[in-house]
Amino acid sequence: MDFTLLRLLLASDVVLAHYRELTGFGQWWSHGFSSTVAVQAFFVISGWIVTASYESSSNVGGFFVRRIARLYPLYAVVVVAQAFFASILMHAPAGSFGEITHYLAANLSFANFLKPSLLGFLDQARVHAINPALWTLKIEVMFYLSVPLLVTFNRWYPRQALAAMFIASTAFYYLVDPISGELAKQLPGQLRFFVAGMVCRRLLAKTSYVQKLPKAVCLLLTLTGLAAAQFFDGNYAFAFFQPLFVAIFVVAAVRLSPKLSHVPDISFGVYLIHAPIIHFLHQDGIGLLEPGPHGLAVVLLATLAFAIVGSYAIEQPAIRLGHRLSQHLSERRNARFKSAVESLNEAK
Q1: How much is the pTM?
Q2: Transmembrane ranges (predicted)?
Q3: Among residues 204, 200, 179, 176, which one has the least CA distance to residue 190?
Q4: Which has fewest Cβ within 10 Å: 16, 138, 180, 325?
Q5: Which letter does DSSP use for residue 107 in this model?
Q6: 305: part of which helix (H) or strand (E)?
Q7: Quick check: 281 pLDDT over 90?
Q8: Long-range contacts made by residues 121-127, C-beta under 8 angstroms, separation at least 24?
């Protein structure tokens, strides 16, 4: 199954949501489906793909090298670039080095909530964070770190582990959400969506039933799952079922998606880059972006252009390097294992 098109559509929906939120533009045609549902769908896809990546890895080190290579290079470039341009626009004084360092340290370590903006750049803006999309990435990273443990737990208890993780995550959400909605949408509250993705992969690996479904049925399931996820989004009583609705949407939608194996996946770049572009063009004193259809077109074109450049110049070379390093680690591990076996045989 190819997730390229689906992920790009999900990232585009987040772009629309942030365009409305950051500029105040509210025409009906600019509304997609809930950006929260889009993020939840990303988590389901990650649970599916990342666990598959881990299970196909010959060692844990190689898995983490590939994950770092996939996520961090473009992320770091975007964080540094947005700090650089914000500093220029605010005519950073000589004494601002400490604040800029604080911003970079927090954001480069996925703790953007500690320093979402700098130098008063967005004090008068609707949203003060330079890049409000970054909050999900710390959740992704925490999931990556927990994957070896989650997969091992699932191997030990193949019938109970996923159900236990799902129930525990949902229970955390139900207990914490009345106290702090912000905390409830972190891990482990969001783990239920990753687990839903793990379940999807496990079920589809054992059966080709979904592949045999007529496309008309898949279209109906896509629309039904999306409508249910949209309708019950944020509904406390139906939080237990929300991952199911999102998973149905993801499975059916990806079944309808064409295979784009030769097309670069620019969804991560679109997700990372769009919000700073909106802020920098729309911010008072710059005046290059007026809320409206033309402004949205400018944002979409600029985001796509930067995402494509980022894919070819940063993401793809980093991914190739990650694969080479992972393979090197695997070869070294195999060589050490072979040497240890030979030493044991000689000792005998």
Answers
A1: 0.91
A2: 33-51, 72-94, 100-121, 133-151, 157-176, 213-232, 238-256, 263-282, 294-314
A3: 176
A4: 180
A5: H
A6: helix 293-310
A7: no
A8: 121/86, 121/89, 121/90, 121/283, 122/279, 122/283, 124/284, 125/22, 125/279, 125/283, 126/21, 126/22, 126/23, 126/24, 127/21, 127/22
